[in-house]
Design goal:
two-stranded antiparallel ribbon, two-stranded antiparallel sheet
C-alpha cells in the first residue's frame, strides 16, 4: 500500500512528547498485518532541513501485540532503531 502527496507539517501531540510532523492516513483502507511477518515502512521526505528523533525503542507492545523494529541498511539517509525513526504509528486490533 502506498500514498503520495504534499503534506504540511504541524505541531503534533505525541504519547511521550510533542513534535512537528504530519499525518498520513489510509482512509477507508485496512492494512492487514500477519503474525511473524516482516513489513517495511518507508517515507521519502524532502524540503527544509529535517530534525530526526533519537533514543528510539526497538520493541513496543500495543494491545497485546509486540512490534520489533529492525535496523535496515540503506544508502544515504537510512535510519536505525536508535536514530531517525517515525515518531508514532497508530495501531488497533
Amino acid at each position: 500500500m502506498h500514498k503520495t502527496g504534499l503534506f504540511s507539517s504541524e505541531l503534533l501531540q505525541g504519547g511521550k512528547f510533542n513534535y512537528f510532523g504530519f499525518k498520513v492516513l489510509f482512509d477507508n483502507q485496512e492494512v492487514l498485518l500477519r503474525k511473524n511477518t516482516i513489513y517495511f515502512v518507508e517515507a521519502k521526505i524532502g524540503g527544509f532541513d529535517l530534525i530526526c528523533g533519537d533514543d528510539g525503542d526497538s520493541t513496543v507492545t500495543c494491545s497485546g501485540v509486540t512490534f520489533t523494529f529492525l535496523d535496515i541498511a540503506t544508502t544515504g539517509g537510512g535510519t536505525t532503531t536508535q536514530q531517525g525513526q517515525f515518531p508514532e504509528l497508530i495501531f488497533s486490533l
